[in-house]
């Protein structure tokens, strides 16, 4: 900890008196222990003085390791390139810690998830209701505890607890809301949504008064499976299946986290190839999103055009990896051997990229300047700069509200420190700004890939290492197409992870949707929900139980 | 002839007796007596009017009163009655709606107003019917005004019947004051007419005005203003949306369905009989009609109280009638007799149609109040399973007022459009506005019907247990609703009722014989060279083809399911859609109009009278000093005037 | 006797043509989006598939929700009988052009009554939008009919189809009719009642199987009726030329409408109402011109 003692952060910690209990876990991560009642001051000072933002919270059952439950709050000091972990401990007999939601609204969901999964209660949380687990899950069984086996079966509760909660305060009194206004259910089955989620939107005629959200319909038990059944090298494959669109990002972030924890240096060529594949995925995701956005605005011709251009990107991916999506290229320490890019392919790739760029530019200018598209997206779904900071939104959503943040630029990973690119930021905060930000990112990605292809170094593809040390904490962060994707790993015994927490960017972004919906028209609700590019598969990956245990749930009940 | 007189006089006599007797009883008995006797006498009135209209006769009778009060001159000396086709038509409407409302009123009053001065109600109710009937059959200006004032007085007591409700008392008071002011204008106009034109003869036949004479312009303006205050034309309509909802529902039906038509009777007498039609008066009347229908209906669109919505629609639909009347006066003055006859036909047809469907609608609103005690459209819903017959009548009446073929509202609106579209000039624009407002009416009644009967409720008042509607309340509504259907499919029936009036007017204006424009058969109407309409065939095709299609689907088993809520469970009351959310975007698109009207209302109805009131207060303080002197002086002045005139 | 035959040919011809025209529209939209579209008969296949399914019912009262679709469909059939289409004869004594317009309006009102009765919030939002739009569309229609009445001195179908007197105001009102036919026939910028991504079906959400087939069919027939009104005013009424010209113009109109539809997104209700307000003002100007004799 000595090298920090003179810096800003050292001063801050000394002021609060926790300098002694802080330790460096990896070169870019510090861990602050024994915070107790200085928690609120610490959080406030971190946000104000270091310009850090709250990222997520993770609950870990550390009873086999040191006999207690632990909650880690992750703060990211973007400009210093530093991750700050604040660890709170809770004893098994009395598992209560203080909640930081009253001062950081963005921590709402993460703390409720810990309550559901690990069973630690947060004192002072304004809405301590169930978030992840379904309504009929028994109330004292916590799936992510180490004494819960991944294929345990439990009886369904008879009574169904039907309460929907949002993550923001009620603007209008709940009784008045239900009496005076009409609740329009958007989801779980709705043509505007790709994955099941539930927005209960209260309208007055056509105007939206309030919105409540319930998600987590597609839990698949990924974290539990990774902790109990899979080795380090098998987890990237399941990480890739967290999401259909941003799979490679998740597997890269996991590999980065483990490499961070174990201190492995990935060879250059592997970094370059990782970056190229990540950028291809970004272009693919943004083009898909634009098609969907135009479809929701009713402009089907634009939808067809964007998806036709997207086909070429998928051809490119197939040429490089053999798959149109879900490449399976990552492994801890580098890239798998068969995913090398040979010299003959490079001219073809460049030709393809050029044709994509031409066609894309030809159409997108015409579409974005159509009066109708502008009328329906300008000044619609505004998220102000202050609210964006309060809820810690990430990615293009934050960049469209004026927050200049990009993991590739400020905490570079893979080969991003070797290339030159701009970070597009706009400050209107409406749907139009989000379209323009993603449009510019597509152009930047094309330029990044060209730069990387020109300078591909010749090194091995995978790092050599003996073993991965145990009980080490590592954080891996990538810039997914939707924002900062953070993976928290605690390495474990027997070639397995002890705790793996993938936190997708949509987790933070979704909390801001009810804010954006208030005061807008119902006709704009689908495009506002879609404008944060929600990836519900990413968000909902957390553990429930294995669905195939013979439990049959009726989705509609009286 | 004497049969008609016998029918009318016995009706009048029975109504008089009913009002006096029911004062002597209390509670349920008085209501029973007045209901039965009023219903019977209204039936007699209907029969008498039908005889007048079918036989196309004029019945006149003079009862000299001189021998009762010796020394009185002709001013108060005679009680003369003249029942021609115009009077017969209006008394038919009075009798029909009165009959239905009297039967309906019995159960309604004894259940809802549990013995709150019901004797006083019965007295006023019979008086009201009596005075309305007499107003349209006398042929003497003085007696007309006497019965007009009596009509206003008795209906005011009926409006403010619920003495404990401040709103009702205030509404009754406002109604009385405003219409009394109108009556004052009528009195002044009559005085001028009597003194200046007819040489102290108050009989209708003696009044012949020259429309271009400045004094008669003044007189006609006074008459028209006084009558339009009572008929609730814009800008004098502000009493109606407050008064009609507060009255008991069958009284509202009488007020809206009949009482606001009596001024139209007098207008027709004035502009066709007392004077010749002129272009200016035609345009003025048509313009006021167009403004009324525009303002009234657009305001009705935003109401969420069932009876207030219906009251605003009464204002709007009166606009249709007045528009057609003005158009016909204009066309007669322009010597376009064919189109003028069509317009007059349309006006009278719409008048009787409006009585029918508006009364039905008010009676259905009354049934809803009877069952649930609520008028709030935001809370009601799904009542059709508790009161199927009421919802059927409401559906028929709503479709009629919207002008959906083949119901009666459609035929009269179609006739209005035919005459106004073909006449060119400003009347054409009024026709276009009328067609637009017909669409707004449709929207408003879709809202009325569906928020009460159709889509599920939030939480029904009275704990989700609406009371059952008794037969004596269901049958009158169905009767009127079936008349709506009948008048729509067989337009020859109302044509026979109106024909007498048209013949009278064409004969008095010496219309050339070859303008035989209206061609009516059993179930079709056509205007030569202008338009054609075959509602009977449309109705037959509609019912038969749609029933055939429905019958073909009987073989497939129908799947019954609950409303789709996107796969989640959500309580029914949460997805309830209140009435205030309907058409909110349309109201926003028209917010210029609404803001202007609200501003005008605030200035003219609230601020200026308040200023006048404060300045009057100051004046009255001054007068109170010498109050006694003033009163004596005023009394002497009046005596001098009477002696001079006599 | 022959007249009945002609009327039946007209009626069944229109019933047959309506889905084929929709298939044509879908193919053209597909070509404009650079993809292979469905075949011309695809809409017929869809309708037949739906006709074979069971109907469903919901709402209060259940009977009204189902029966109103049949009433709506029947009203459109009566409208088809009144006006000449393929063969220039019709039972025009049943009604004149005002009756025709009111039959179209009442078909929409029956559909709306049925859909509101189902109680679904999506249906209610969609119906509220649809009624707001059609109130203004009715005003524009009134302006168009008044121009016909003034220039041709009659409201009868025989006198107006085809129009005998052509004046500049009549031609301008035909352009307005072209626009209003587009707006009222559930085509894309104005397809607000059934907006699928926003309202997941809107007005026709609660209809399934057989009733949904009739709901779709009503939309298609309504489109053809609007086109027919426009075409009939222009083309001459000779028995031999009329069918050929009519069918040709119908296909031409369909191609034009679908090309316009392919290049637009969906409007929000306030923008749609403001566009219609502007059209009302333009219509008012045309009426003034007609009254002044232009």
Q: What report would you give on this structure?
A:
The complex is a heterotrimer of chains A (558), B (646) and C (294). By secondary structure, chain A is of the alpha+beta class. Chain A folds into two domains: 2-123, NADH:ubiquinone oxidoreductase Nqo5 subunit (Beta Polymerase, domain 2), CATH 3.30.460; 222-517, Cytochrome-c3 Hydrogenase, chain B (Orthogonal Bundle). Chain A contains 20 helices and 15 strands. Chain B has 646 residues and is mainly α. Helices cover 71% and strands 4% of the residues of chain B. In chain B, α7 packs antiparallel against α8 (214-230), α16 (408-423) runs antiparallel to α17 (426-454) and α16 (408-423) runs parallel beside α18. Chain B has three domains: 1-276, no CATH class; 282-556, no CATH class; 590-645, no CATH class. Chain C is mainly alpha-helical. Chain C has one domain. Chain C is 71% helix and 1% strand. Chain C is globular and about 50 Å long. In chain C, 61% of the residues are buried. At the B-C interface, α15, α16, α17, β5 and α20 of B face β1, α3, α4, α5 and α11 of C. β6 (559-560) of chain B pairs parallel with β1 (56-57) of chain C.
Provide the CATH top-level class of the largest domain in chain A. Mainly Alpha
CATH homologous superfamily name of the largest domain in chain A? Cytochrome-c3 Hydrogenase, chain B
How would you sum up the major sheet of chain A?
A: 5 strands, mixed
What does the radius of gyration of chain C come to? 19 Å
Main pleated sheet of chain C = none
Gross geometry of chain C: globular
Q: What is the largest interface, and how many residues per chain?
A: B-C, 76 and 77 residues
Distance from first to last alpha carbon of chain A: 59 Å
What oligomeric state best describes the polypeptide chains here?
heterotrimer
**SS elements, strand count of chain A:** 15
Number of strands of chain C: 1
Radius of gyration of chain A over alpha carbons?
23 Å
Tell me, briefly, the overall form of chain A: globular
Extract low-pLDDT stretches of chain C: none
The overall number of domains of chain C is 1
Distance between the termini of chain C: 42 Å
Alpha-beta content class of chain C: mainly alpha
Q: Helix amount of chain C, in percent?
A: over 70%
What class would the helix/strand composition of chain A place it in? alpha+beta
């Amino acid at each position: 900890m000595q090298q920090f003692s003179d810096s800003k952060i050292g001063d801050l910690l000394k002021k609060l008196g926790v300098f002694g209990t802080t330790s460096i876990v990896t070169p870019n991560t510090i861990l602050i222990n024994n915070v107790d009642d200085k928690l609120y001051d610490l959080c406030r000072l971190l946000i104000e003085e270091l310009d850090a933002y709250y990222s997520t919270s993770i609950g870990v059952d550390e009873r086999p390791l040191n006999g207690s439950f632990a909650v880690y709050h992750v703060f990211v000091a973007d400009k210093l390139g530093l991750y700050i972990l604040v660890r709170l401990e809770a004893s098994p007999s009395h598992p209560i810690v203080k909640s930081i939601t009253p001062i950081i609204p963005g921590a709402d969901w993460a703390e409720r998830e810990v309550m559901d999964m690990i069973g630690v209660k947060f004192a002072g949380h304004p809405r301590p209701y169930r978030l992840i687990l379904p309504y009929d899950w028994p109330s004292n069984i916590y799936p992510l505890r180490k004494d819960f086996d991944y294929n345990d079966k439990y009886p369904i509760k008879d009574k169904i607890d039907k309460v929907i909660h949002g993550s923001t305060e009620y603007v209008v009194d709940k009784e008045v809301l239900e009496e005076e206004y009409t609740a329009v259910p958007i989801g779980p089955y709705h043509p505007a949504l790709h994955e099941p989620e539930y927005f209960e939107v209260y309208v007055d005629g056509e105007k939206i008064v309030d919105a409540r959200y319930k998600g987590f319909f597609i839990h698949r038990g990924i974290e539990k499976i990774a902790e109990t059944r899979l080795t380090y090298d098998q987890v990237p494959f399941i990480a890739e299946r967290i999401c259909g669109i941003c799979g490679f990002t998740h597997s890269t972030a996991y590999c980065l986290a483990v490499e961070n924890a174990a201190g492995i240096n990935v060879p250059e060529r592997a970094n370059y190839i990782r970056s190229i594949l990540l950028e291809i995925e970004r272009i693919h995701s943004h083009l898909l999103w634009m098609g969907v956005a135009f479809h929701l605005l009713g402009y089907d011709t634009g939808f067809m055009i964007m998806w036709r251009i997207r086909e070429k990107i998928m051809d490119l991916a197939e040429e490089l990896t053999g798959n149109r999506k879900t490449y399976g290229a990552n492994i801890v320490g580098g890239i798998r051997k068969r995913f090398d890019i040979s010299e003959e392919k490079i001219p073809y790739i460049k030709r393809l990229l050029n044709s994509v760029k031409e066609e894309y530019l030809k159409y997108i200018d015409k579409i974005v300047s159509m009066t109708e598209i502008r009328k329906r997206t300008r000044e619609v779904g505004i998220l102000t700069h202050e609210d964006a900071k309060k809820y810690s939104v990430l990615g293009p959503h934050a960049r469209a509200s004026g927050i200049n943040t990009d993991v590739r630029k400020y905490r570079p990973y893979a080969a991003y420190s070797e290339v030159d690119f701009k970070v597009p930021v706009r400050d209107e905060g409406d749907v139009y700004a989000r379209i323009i930000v993603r449009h510019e990112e597509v152009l930047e990605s094309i330029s990044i890939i060209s730069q990387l292809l020109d300078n591909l170094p010749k090194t091995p593809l995978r790092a050599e290492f003996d073993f991965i040390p145990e009980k080490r904490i590592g954080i891996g962060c990538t810039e997914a197409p939707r924002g900062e994707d953070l993976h928290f790993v605690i390495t474990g015994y027997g070639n397995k992870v002890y705790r793996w927490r993938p936190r997708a960017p949509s987790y933070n972004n979704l909390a801001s949707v009810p804010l954006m919906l208030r005061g807008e028209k119902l006709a704009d609700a689908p495009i506002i929900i879609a404008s944060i590019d929600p990836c519900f598969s990413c968000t909902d990956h957390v553990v429930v139980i294995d669905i195939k245990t013979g439990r049959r749930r009726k989705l509609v009940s009286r | 002839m004497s049969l008609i007189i016998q029918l009318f006089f016995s009706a009048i006599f029975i109504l008089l007796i009913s009002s006096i007797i029911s004062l002597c009883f209390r509670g349920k008995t008085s209501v029973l007596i007045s209901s039965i006797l009023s219903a019977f006498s209204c039936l007699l009135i209907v029969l008498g009017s039908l005889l007048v209209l079918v036989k196309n006769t004029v019945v006149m009778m003079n009862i000299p009163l001189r021998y009762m009060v010796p020394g009185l001159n002709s001013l108060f000396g005679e009680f003369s009655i003249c029942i021609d086709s115009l009077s017969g038509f209006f008394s038919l409407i009075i009798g029909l709606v009165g009959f239905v409302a009297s039967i309906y009123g019995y159960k309604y009053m004894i259940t809802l107003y549990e013995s709150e001065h019901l004797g006083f109600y019965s007295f006023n109710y019979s008086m009201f019917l009596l005075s309305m009937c007499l107003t349209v059959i006398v042929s003497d200006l003085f007696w007309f005004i006497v019965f007009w004032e009596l009509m206003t007085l008795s209906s005011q007591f009926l409006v403010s019947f619920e003495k404990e409700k401040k709103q009702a008392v205030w509404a009754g008071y406002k109604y009385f004051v405003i219409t009394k002011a109108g009556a004052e204008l009528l009195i002044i106009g009559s005085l001028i007419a009597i003194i200046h034109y007819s040489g102290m003869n108050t009989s209708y036949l003696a009044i012949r005005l020259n429309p271009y004479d400045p004094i008669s312009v003044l007189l006609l303006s006074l008459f028209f203003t006084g009558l339009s205050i009572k008929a609730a034309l814009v800008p004098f309509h502000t009493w109606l949306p407050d008064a009609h909802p507060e009255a008991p529902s069958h009284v509202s039906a009488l007020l809206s369905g009949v009482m606001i038509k009596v001024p139209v009777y007098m207008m027709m007498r004035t502009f066709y009989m007392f004077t010749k039609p002129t272009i200016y008066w035609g345009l003025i009347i048509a313009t006021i009609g167009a403004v009324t229908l525009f303002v009234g209906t657009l305001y009705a669109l935003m109401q969420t109280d069932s009876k207030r919505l219906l009251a605003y629609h009464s204002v709007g639909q009166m606009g249709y009638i007045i528009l057609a009347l003005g158009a016909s006066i204009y066309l007669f003055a322009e010597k376009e007799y064919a189109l003028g006859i069509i317009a007059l036909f349309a006006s009278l047809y719409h008048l009787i149609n409006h009585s029918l469907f508006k009364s039905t609608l008010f009676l259905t609103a009354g049934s809803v109040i009877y069952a649930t005690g609520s008028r709030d459209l935001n809370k009601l819903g799904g009542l059709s399973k508790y009161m199927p017959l009421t919802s059927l009548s409401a559906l028929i009446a709503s479709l009629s007022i919207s002008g959906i073929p083949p119901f009666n509202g459609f035929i009269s609106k179609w006739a209005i459009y035919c005459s106004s579209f073909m006449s060119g000039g400003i009347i054409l624009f009024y026709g276009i506005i009328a067609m637009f407002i017909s669409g707004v009416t449709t929207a408003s009644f879709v809202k009325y019907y569906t928020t009460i009967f159709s889509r599920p409720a939030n939480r029904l008042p009275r704990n989700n247990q609406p009371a059952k509607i008794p037969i004596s309340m269901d049958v009158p509504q169905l009767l009127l609703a079936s008349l709506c259907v009948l008048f729509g499919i067989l337009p020859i029936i109302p044509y026979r009722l109106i024909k007498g009036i048209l013949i009278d007017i064409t004969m008095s204006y010496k219309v050339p014989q070859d303008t035989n424009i209206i061609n009516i058969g059993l179930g079709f109407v056509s205007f030569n060279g202008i338009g054609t309409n075959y509602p009977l065939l449309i109705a037959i095709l509609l019912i038969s083809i749609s029933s055939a299609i429905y019958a073909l689907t009987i073989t497939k088993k129908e799947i019954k399911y609950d409303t789709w809520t996107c796969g989640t469970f959500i309580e029914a009351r949460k997805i309830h859609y209140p009435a205030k959310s309907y058409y909110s975007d349309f109201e926003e698109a028209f917010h210029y109009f609404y803001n202007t009207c609200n501003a005008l209302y605030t200035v003219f109805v609230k601020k200026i009278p308040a200023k006048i009131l404060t300045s009057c207060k100051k004046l009255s303080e001054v007068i109170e000093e010498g109050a006694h002197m003033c009163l004596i002086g005023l009394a002497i002045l009046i005596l001098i005037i009477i002696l001079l005139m006599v | 006797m022959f007249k009945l035959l002609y009327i039946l040919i007209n009626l069944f011809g229109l019933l047959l043509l309506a889905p084929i025209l929709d298939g044509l529209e879908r193919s053209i939209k597909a070509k404009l989006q650079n993809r292979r579209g469905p075949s011309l008969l695809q809409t017929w296949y869809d309708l037949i598939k739906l006709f074979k399914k069971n109907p469903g019912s919901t709402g209060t009262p259940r009977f009204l929700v189902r029966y109103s679709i049949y009433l709506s469909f029947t009203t459109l059939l009566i409208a088809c009988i009144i006006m000449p289409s393929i063969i220039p004869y019709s039972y025009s004594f049943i009604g004149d052009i005002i009756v025709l317009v009111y039959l179209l309006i009442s078909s929409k009102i029956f559909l709306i009554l049925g859909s509101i009765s189902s109680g679904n919030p999506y249906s209610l939002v969609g119906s509220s939008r649809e009624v707001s739009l059609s109130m203004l569309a009715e005003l524009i229609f009134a302006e168009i009919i008044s121009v016909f009445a003034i220039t041709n001195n009659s409201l009868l179908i025989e006198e107006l189809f085809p129009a005998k007197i052509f004046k500049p105001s009549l031609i301008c009102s035909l352009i307005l009719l072209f626009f209003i036919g587009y707006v009222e026939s559930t085509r894309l910028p104005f397809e607000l009642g059934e907006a699928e991504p926003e309202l997941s079906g809107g007005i026709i959400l609660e209809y399934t199987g057989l009733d949904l087939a009739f709901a779709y069919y009503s939309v298609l027939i309504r489109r053809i009726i609007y086109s027919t009104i426009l075409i009939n005013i222009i083309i001459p009424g000779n028995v031999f030329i009329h069918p050929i010209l009519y069918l040709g113009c119908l296909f031409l109109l369909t191609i034009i409408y679908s090309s316009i539809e392919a290049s637009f997104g969906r409007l929000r209700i306030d923008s749609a109402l403001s566009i219609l307000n502007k059209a009302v003002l333009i219509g008012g100007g045309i009426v003034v011109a007609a009254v002044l004799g232009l």
